[in-house]
Design brief:
Largest sheet: none
Mean pLDDT: 80
Number of strands: 0
Structural class: mainly alpha
Helix content: 55-70%
CATH topology of the largest domain: Multiheme cytochrome fold
Order of helices and strands: HHHHHHHHHHH
Radius of gyration: 23 Å
CATH architecture of the largest domain: Orthogonal Bundle
Distance between the termini: 33 Å
Strand content: under 5%
C-alpha cells in the first residue's frame, strides 16, 4: 500500500470519527427532547456502524504505517538497525538482503513478521510491547528479540527458491532447520551489525 493510500485512509478515518461524534451528539440532544422517540437507524449509526467504520479505516492506516521502516526508525534506539540496512560496508544479513534487492519494500516487516494467519496481529502486539519496553527500560539499551529468530521467517522466501535444497548443508539439516533446532543465523548471521 502506497503512502498516498495511507493518507486517504487517514482522512477517511478522521471524517468518520467526526461524523460519529456529530451523530452521537445529535442523538443525545434528540434523546433529551424525546427520550422514547430516537429512531433505531440513528442509534444503529451512532453506536454501531460509524464506530466500526472508524475502527476499520484507522486500523488499516495504523497497521500499514507500522510496516514501513521509518516507523521502526522513529525510536532512536532502532536507528542503527535501520541505518545498517543501507550501509554499503555492512556485513549484516539484513543489509545484504536490502542492498541486493532481495527485499524490495518494508524490510523490517518482511523479515520480522510472522506469516501465520494471525501473524500480523501478533507482530503489532509484539511491536507495541517493544515500544513499551523502550519507555520503561533504559532507552539506550539495545533491543533484543523476545524469542529466538524463527527459521520460518527465512523459509517464507527461501524455501521457494529452486536452489535452497541443492545446498548440501540445507538438505542434510532440513529437519533441524524446520524445528528450529538449528538456526539459519548460525551459518548466515549476524542479521544486524553488532554493537
Amino acid at each position: 500500500m502506497e503512502n498516498h493510500d495511507i493518507n486517504i485512509f487517514w482522512w477517511i478515518s478522521i471524517s468518520l470519527c467526526l461524523a460519529t461524534i456529530a451523530t452521537i451528539v445529535i442523538t443525545g440532544i434528540q434523546g433529551r427532547r424525546q427520550p422514547n422517540q430516537i429512531p433505531k437507524k440513528t442509534l444503529f449509526f451512532a453506536i454501531g456502524l460509524l464506530p466500526l467504520s472508524v475502527l476499520y479505516f484507522s486500523d488499516i492506516t495504523i497497521l500499514q504505517s507500522m510496516k514501513d521502516e521509518q516507523f521502526c526508525n522513529s525510536c532512536h534506539v532502532m536507528q542503527p538497525f535501520v541505518d545498517g540496512l543501507y550501509d554499503e560496508e555492512s556485513e549484516g544479513l539484513a543489509a545484504q538482503h536490502v542492498q541486493h534487492i532481495r527485499i524490495r519494500e518494508n524490510p523490517c516487516y518482511t523479515c520480522h513478521s510472522d506469516y501465520q494467519i494471525l501473524g500480523g496481529v501478533r507482530d503489532k502486539i509484539r511491536g507495541l510491547r517493544h515500544m513499551l519496553a523502550f519507555y520503561i527500560k533504559d532507552e539506550n539499551e539495545r533491543p533484543e528479540l523476545y524469542d529466538p529468530y524463527p527459521n520460518e521467517n527465512c523459509f517464507s522466501c527461501h524455501m521457494e527458491s529452486s536452489t535452497f535444497m541443492e545446498i548440501e548443508d540445507h538438505a542434510d539439516n532440513i529437519e533441524e532447520l524446520m524445528t528450529d533446532d538449528v538456526s539459519c543465523l548460525e551459518c548466515h548471521g549476524p542479521s544486524h551489525p553488532e554493537e
